[in-house]
Amino acid sequence: MNNRGMIIAGIIIFLCMITFPIWYNVVGGKAAYTPEFKIVSKEKQCVESTKYMRAKHMQLLNDWRNSVVRDGKRTYTALDGKKYDMSLSNTCLNCHSNKADFCDKCHNYVEVTPTCWNCHVVPEGNKL
Amino acid sequence: MFEKALIGSKKYWGLVIGLLAIMGVGAIFYLQQWNYGLGITGMSRDVSWGLYIAQFTFLVGVAASAVMVVLPYYLHNYKAFGRITILGEFVAVASVIMCLVFIIADLGQPTRALNIVLYPTPSSILFWDMIVLNGYLLLNILIGWNVLASERKSVPPPAWVKPLIYISIPWAVSIHTVTAFIYAGLPGRGFWLTAIMAPRFLASAFAGGPALLILLSLILRKFTKFDPGKDAIQNLGKIVAYAMSINVFFILLEIFTVFYSQIPEHMHHFEYIFAGLGEHGKLVPWMWTSVTLAVLSLILLINPVTRRREGILALACVIVFFSLWIEKGFVLVVTGFIPSPLGRVFEYSPTVPEIFITLGVWAMGFLILAVLYKIAVAVKEEIET
Amino acid sequence: MKIDRRGFLKIGGLGILGVAAKPVIDVVSKVKLAEASAKKRVLVEKRLAMVVNLKNCKEGCTDCIDACHRLHNVPNITNPKDEVKWIWTESYENAFPDQEHRFIGGGMKGSPAILLCNHCDNPSCVRVCPTKATFKRKDGIVMMDYHRCIGCRFCMAACPYGSRSFNWRDPRPFIKKINPDFPTRTKGVVEKCNFCEERLAKGLIPACVESCKNKALVFGNVEDPNSEIREILRSNYTIRRKPGLGTGPQIYYIV
User: Fold this and answer.
1) Tell me, what's the pLDDT at C42?
2) Does residue B187 contact residue C158 with C-beta atoms inside 8 Å?
3) pLDDT of C83 over the 90 cut
4) CATH of domain B2-384
5) Which of C70, C142, C186, C194 to mutate to test the interface with A (most CBs of A within 10 A)?
């Protein structure tokens, strides 16, 4: 092991680099921003509980899309028995009429880019 | 063994850097395609497959180089091929990787490529092609690497490699057959709807693969201390001669059936490539070049006097490779769409970005091949000294 | 275990046979399925189809095309290379190449025929799709799942009717006014007529049928012997595009 010094130095440089964001915040003295949650909605209650929606909205939307496109079933029966039309543009965005606040804020923060809006249309009047 | 690829002459590094540069240019154009969409290519609503899929089809054929040396060596104990099986297997590895990359380059939604695995669909030939190509790639990597590693240690290869070698032979047949089935099972595409599509693919593969292998062997002998052996090269030459004859024979069979039956849906395509339809005849010069080269190659290959002279054999192999490239790597795919099912003649020619992306993928394939050959040759040189 | 050459050839031969036989068996079993389903068809409740009466179709009128393309956000790309269309016209000879001859009468020669996806009984596009992104519903509609399409365009090669379009580029800039009730498509997916599946779900008839003032288009369930479409099929002689290919097209033409 005549390369020991090089290897250890390499490991240290690697560790420094991957932990850089943490050091940057410590030295800078402030944490990166967290998005302000601002859920705008016309209705009081979403199709499911807020906790469920927050954790599982992507699965729910995937299930909706498969159900509508592949099985031709368009009505969603929520846990509380209420029925909804499974539609992103019409049901979801009808209530959450501000996509920029409602979708994009969090998605930008966690650096995910769902491709929904490449095809689905943001209803008019909905602030982008 | 991989460390051998990292030590090389200036020429070797020059080649590596040159290929990387071409890949870089290809990558820049691919980024453009990624952003704009496949509309950046010459493909259209009528001609919906072009250069990429044609390259994939051609390279499946090149991958046959492995089986044509593996089969005589392992089944018929033909010793002269023992030195070059590894060369054949590594060509197969490089060309199958290129096949897969060309398919990805052709996808409209490359990020969803794994849907083929997530929603397996046995009725689709593309699903089976994915399986046979990946299987063939894996087989050749495992076999090539292990045989070379044991050769280096002067021990016989591990026992589990033997069955894999035997499996790889029918598996090689499967990649051409399944790729031919992509075309040969479509209603309303008269140019492709022929039962001898798979035999044609096999014949042209068994000519094109070994032709490339001969050229590579000659190059290696010139630039390295490794000698593939005169016998091996001569016998590969015979294989190319037979396979190319059969390939030309099969094409003549197609031409007979199509023109004697006079069924327009089948005939129009052949008229398009040999004579042009109306003022549309972009492929005519290409097709006649391919035909002329094929005939020329047969003259040079069948005549033993010319075939035995290595310089002429090399020339014949270049001619075979280029003739087959025109036929499989361009005309076969594009002509299936011209005229369209609605009788429209919409011609296709690749665009500049499309050509550079294609060159980039070829450069990637040659880079893989250069690295693998570097390792193989270094090991062989080490054993001999 | 030592395998001699003869032993190996036997095993190898079987292997080749197995690999080669699989797709053949697939095809054969499909054929049997098609026969069986032809017998079973009485049991199917619904088989949606359309009759196009070319006698009623007025030359120069584009109502059905406009209605469909506006509703479904089909981009208006004029370059034929990148063009996208769900329903369009083509000359009679090109639409029915096997019916073409020198003396075509009845004003059909060169006159436009309305073309759209045939929603085949035995769709070759569905057979070749490697991800089931295109599939046949129980009521016969051949659907596209744009979320799943990888854009390999195998279906375009397989469709003998030229009914499929690919999004060679982002279609949005070419849509004059986006209909907010229907999604657009994104670049890199294949699209085609969906028989107004989204309207049928609301109990409406397809937009093209609704928009036609001359009653050239009739839509209905051919499994229902009392339906209007069955009455029209009974009382008129109808033809289909390329029936010899065995795809079982479900658009019937009165010429």
Assistant:
1) 45
2) yes
3) yes
4) 1.20.1630.10
5) C186
